[in-house]
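Dear H.,

Thanks for agreeing to be a second pair of eyes. The structure we're designing against is below in token form, covering all 54 positions.
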């Protein structure tokens, strides 16, 4: 898992929509539509996704 501190990357969160399906969230993030916040035990390693420590 690749961890990056949000402060170091100067990331700002501005939510604009919600997706209730876990699979839908993963697909949206994978396609570059934004980020997601999930519990660490919910994160499934994927070559196109990585975790940011917040």
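And this is the sequence the design step returned. I haven't edited it by hand at all.
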């Amino acid at each position: 898992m690749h961890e990056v501190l949000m402060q170091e990357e100067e990331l700002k969160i501005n939510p604009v929509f919600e997706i209730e399906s876990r699979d839908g969230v993963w697909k949206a993030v994978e396609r570059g539509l934004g980020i997601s916040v999930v519990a660490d035990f919910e994160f499934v390693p994927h070559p196109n996704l990585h975790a940011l420590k917040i």
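Two observations from my side: The chain has a mean pLDDT of 77. DSSP finds two helices and no strands in the chain.

Warmly,
E.
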